[in-house]
Here is the input.
Amino acid sequence: SQKIEQNSEALNIQEGKTATLTCNYTNYSPAYLQWYRQDPGRGPVFLLLIRENEKEKRKERLKVTFDTTLKQSLFHITASQPADSATYLCARNNAGNMLTFGGGTRLMVKP
Amino acid sequence: GAGVSQSPSNKVTEKGKDVELRCDPISGHTALYWYRQRLGQGLEFLIYFQGNSAPDKSGLPSDRFSAERTGESVSTLTIQRTQQEDSAVYLCASSFRLAGPNTGELFFGEGSRLTVL
Here is the structure.
């Protein structure tokens, strides 16, 4: 099966610093990876999609990379703010558009 | 509505009872997904509907779980003879499958929290 793994330990950083979250996958590279944000008691919200042939994608303070050699995606939040505190989920597509999600990494940004 | 709607938002039931969870996807979305999320865990895929194709049921954990979808609209997830390990948040998501810059982006509902006593 196509697995996707994220660091289950919470990431604690200071406001203003860059947060970097890691997502690793197994077997063949997916056509795309997606990143979602989930707040407690809420459904996940889509943030960014990066395709296999794209090395980097940016959106405001967010940046995602896709390294097919390392089988890894990195998710960066620059100039982090306490409001960025949430759980961030990585997902890969399998057959068609069926998505498999990682376990998520909780980010805590301290003022 | 503007987003994916799920009901009930909370359901408490006794072990052995059947439950039905409902999902109203965004109008026009051809794909619909059900995921299960246990406390502090990631999303576990259950079932995927895409248009008129046969659903992908590969994630259903047992034959106590079933789901139906009427055309490209409402879906119902049914859990029969509930067990305590079924306690979780059940998330529904829909997507617009056709090509576009965000192909495959999922829009999630707020989930149905199921507690089996």
Summary: The mean pLDDT of chain B is 90. Chain B touches chain A through 26 residues (CB under 8 Å). The two ends of chain B are 33 Å apart (CA to CA).
